[in-house]
Design goal:
Layout lengths: L6 H17 L2 H8 L6 H14 L17 H13 L7 H14 L2 H12 L5 E4 L15 E5 L2 E9 L9 E7 L10 E7 L5 E7 L5 E14 L3 E2 L5 H14 L4 H15 L3 E2 L2 E2 L4 H30 L9 H23 L8 H4 L15 H7 L10 H12 L3
Parallel strand pairs: 1-4
Antiparallel strand pairs: 2-3, 3-7, 4-5, 5-8, 6-7, 9-10
The chain binds flavin-adenine dinucleotide.
Length: about 400
Amino acid sequence: MDLRLSADEARFRDEVRTWLNAALPDDLRRKMHLGVRPSKADIVRWQRILNEKGWAAPSWPVEHGGTGWDATQLYIFKEEMQRAFAPDPLGMNINLVGPVIIAFGSEQQKKELLPKIRNLDIWFCQGFSEPGAGSDLASLKTTAVRDGDHYIVNGSKLWTSNAHRADWMFALVRTDTTAKKQKGITYLLIDMKSPGITMNPVITMDGDRWCNQEFFDNVRVPVANRIGEENKGWNYAKYLLGHERVNFGKVGATKARIALAKALATRVISNGKPLSEDQRFQEKLALIDVELKALEITNMQVVAAMKKNTDHKQDPKASILKIKGGELYQAATEILVEVAGPQAMARQTEFLKGETGTAVGADWAATTSHNYFMMRERTIAGGSTEVQHNIIAKAILGL
Ligand SMILES: Cc1cc2nc3c(=O)[nH]c(=O)nc-3n(C[C@H](O)[C@H](O)[C@H](O)COP(=O)(O)OP(=O)(O)OC[C@H]3O[C@@H](n4cnc5c(N)ncnc54)[C@H](O)[C@@H]3O)c2cc1C
């Protein structure tokens, strides 16, 4: 099923695969394979191993610790990581705030922050969405008023993934309330330990704390923490969102889960025979395989286009990746629930947290419903499917 690779590319893939097999700690591999979410310590540990190897921020320019790989190599690396069930380097750091600092930050910000972002010495969260500003992000109301060499920030951010684990937030704030809404937005880096920030958990339908709501009450943020120019934050955000959507393809991760579902289905008996022999089940898998192949080709086209353009504009096809990648990942989590059958409901929180406790039923089965519920967010977060349809209609179909 692999796309045909040149001899050099195949060698590169083998090199990556061999290294990943040796470098990924066994406990982490097992956890990821079972569908248990990695802890903060797991993610930090793995990112530092990658950084040591020089692979934590593969798409960054070489002078900032990137690899210099071309688009195909980057794609192969990502796919091999997902295939090996290795946790991705923290996306907020590596795919979102890092590239924005590289493209628009000051020399001082690059020097000071990029090495820490790469090594996960600082963990960033994304403070864009607010109550009343999600799809219509430019309506955001959190204000930042200049007071000497500081901004005073007031307002609230909502849905912030992993804010409770984060040291810093990259945030969009309103610095001009009179201009057209996209023109009055500034991009700030906010230290989460700043006085005046409070946070409440937002429990998602999987029963876990992933998201948060933060409140800013006269929070002082140094002007030196602004990225680029005041009121130009919308341009930087658009650049970032293109990066975010490209990474929603997750072809390797979906492939790995489908392969897992196929393997597990040979062990599950349904109507007196292995589920893997059930024709309806096979048809479902075949359909996903075909759609995954189409997604893979689109993904490579988008990555190649991104590497060629120099004006920071994103390929609108990233919206196709966002929609299709999300749907197929969801389909893979659904298939795993189907394979687990009633055992999918045997959720045991302690087990899922990787702590003590024993799962009821097969160890892999207890996480399937947990992940199924959480992954409903794939077609919402980072821009909902309906919003991506609007982008495709305008930018690709010219409607
Ligand atoms: C699990 C999770 C994690 C998240 N993490 C983060 C994070 O870390 N940082 C962050 O900033 N945000 C985060 N978000 C927020 C996410 O980006 C928003 O939820 C998303 O953009 C949708 O915004 P909303 O929730 O306000 O819904 P709304 O914008 O109110 O949309 C409600 C419904 O209306 C539809 N709709 C809205 N506008 C249109 C339109 N113009 N045309 C057609 N249909 C439309 C939407 O598709 C949706 O179905 C996260 C969300 C989730 C669920």
